[in-house]
Task: structure prediction
Amino acid sequence: MRDPAMILALAGALLLTGCSSMVSLEPFVTDDVAVTDPSLVGLWQDSGDGDKNLMAIRQKGSAYSIRYFGEDKDFSWGFEGRLLRVGDAELMDFVSTSDNTFNLPVHMVARIWTDGGVLKWAYLDSGWIKDKAQQTLGTQAAGERTLIAVKGAALVEFLKKYGADEKACGDKTQELIRVQ
Result:
């Protein structure tokens, strides 16, 4: 076997419960480049779901603690996020903090927009940005996902160059409304 650790990482990425189809084993945004936005902090609910799905966002230094609560009141999932500002675009690197032996904690990036009591977000996982990742970073297919396995500053530079482009976002934009 060529690289057992990579095969294990790919298998874990396939099992991840996240929604993005472009993931990384390493952070896209590190503490040294992370910024904060006080308008993100609060309790948010899906605009079309009534009170079925909630998201609580708290700031922890240069990071955010994010807890998603599903329709089933016993279900919740934890994430940690770091924010990068590129021009007027804000890009959030998410990684799961929930302990599940069968999931590998991979990083996903979403573009976020806040406007008063509304928070919109869309994953950076369009075909266009996945092509850019393959050309500049090198990627591997992991089922229907694109896995980036490069380390270091190359990920931040990649986001700075391509992440703010409107073509980077996938087709689905989520909208949340501030509850508190």
Remarks:
- The mean pLDDT is 85.
- Residues 4-178 form one domain.
